[in-house]
Design goal:
The chain has two helices and five strands; from the N terminus they run αβββαββ. It has 120 residues and is α+β, with helices and mostly antiparallel strands. The chain has one domain: HIT family, subunit A (2-Layer Sandwich), CATH 3.30.428. A five-stranded antiparallel sheet has the order 1-2-3-5-4, with helices on one face. A hairpin with a 3-residue loop joins β1 (23-26) and β2 (30-34). Bound molecules: guanosine-5'-monophosphate (5GP). A motif (Histidine triad motif) lies at residues 104-108.
Amino acid sequence: ANADNGGPTIFDKIISKEIPSTIVYEDERVLAFRDINPQAPVHVLVIPKFRDGLTQLSKAETRHSEILGHLFYAAKIVAEKEGILDGFRVVINNGPAACQSVYHLHLHVLGGRQMKWPPG
Ligand code: 5GP
């Protein structure tokens, strides 16, 4: 399993487009692209373009408030674009106990099927 070492991740190469991805939404602050291993018909990751120490949500500081808000707003834009505004899930896996595998903060936007709760 990966650890949070604060260093570059595969998402840096996705942001720089060195590694191709299917982009759903992009602006100057965030990038949203399809997960390579989708867990639902719609599975999009929303990430900050500038990580600024946000390897995981538990590292959030006051200075991150604005980007955190914008990430959630971008998740809504993604749900709208994907036609799942009536029902979707936004997930953040934080740390090893939550199965986080990439240490660059990301929101999972999931939908297009009936979601179960609790997720397990
Ligand atoms: P985590 O487990 O850290 O919450 O989620 C990381 C997600 O990134 C996983 O769902 C995984 O499928 C996705 N992922 C990992 N590498 C790549 C990649 O190279 N391209 C894309 N599009 N998704 C990736």
